[in-house]
Amino acid sequence: MSTFAQLGIRPEILSALGELGFETPTAVQAKAIPHLLTSERDAVALAQTGTGKTAAFGIPILERIDPAQRMVQALVLAPTRELCVQITKDLGRYASHLPGVKSVAVYGGANIRDQIRDIQRGANIVVATPGRLIDLIDRKAVDLSGIRIAVLDEADEMLNMGFQEDLTTILETTPKNKHTWLFSATMNSDVRRIAKNYMREADELSVGRANAAADDIKHQYTVIQVRDRYLALKRFVDAEPDLFAIVFCRTKQDTQEL
Ligand code: AMP
């Protein structure tokens, strides 16, 4: 098993990881970090949420940007506001001993002027939802000419959410000679098309099997009548008194009823 030090990470980041209690790299980190630190080729990595993928691309970003340059050098695209905020928070943690590194989250549904001001105060990493970034590009509020790394996080989700056209526009607006790193939980023809059209000789870094759930997660399901579902859910909860859970529903109304 490798250690973070063996992956070639600088001491400032190693101490931040130590303080976060990260002892050993996860599978995707062990595979992606050395590659993204050294290879000039693009990369496609298959990784689900919860596998440590944020650090897998976040650490190589921090290693490759120059904090002294007050311009946007890395761009991370993610499907939701929550994910953008989480990624930005994580980057801040890994960079806690790297002065001058500033990442900003930009997403729809929040004041665009505040976000523009945050970028103009010297962000070197922008973490964005595709729609809001297009808005910023249209307003000429963000300069992407210095981008050296573009990460597509949860690429499959971004395509599911209809961001295909926005992604194309963004990738065409950024410099051709940048590195593009694509992370996706699943691999389908749309994801492959993005990789084929907008990436240079991408290496595929898969951990585990394609389109499979994490090994340490057990899946169970029960087929029931719609009218019985809350009662059935209650039984699951009663059977596991220590359960901490997130329940997903199909509609807004379902979540309210539940
Ligand atoms: P992610 O898949 O990036 O959302 O990460 C899932 C969670 O695992 C986050 O809470 C991370 O802070 C945590 N994490 C990531 N890498 C490691 C590691 N090597 N050791 C311990 N925890 C980690």
Describe this structure in words.
The structure is a single chain. The chain is an alpha/beta fold. It is built from eleven helices and seven strands. It has helices at 11-20, 27-38, 53-64, 81-94, 112-120, 130-138, 155-160, 164-173, 189-198, 229-239, 252-257; strands at 43-46, 74-77, 103-106, 125-128, 149-152, 179-184, 203-206. A seven-stranded parallel β-sheet has the order 3-4-2-5-6-1-7, with helices on both faces. Strand 3 (103-106), helix 5 and strand 4 (125-128) form a beta-alpha-beta unit. Helix 2 (27-38) packs parallel to helix 3 and helix 3 crosses helix 4 (81-94). The longest helix has 14 residues, at 81-94. The model has no long low-confidence stretch (mean pLDDT 93). It binds adenosine monophosphate. Adenosine monophosphate binds next to helix 3. Adenosine monophosphate (AMP) binds at residues 22, 25-26, 29, 49-55.
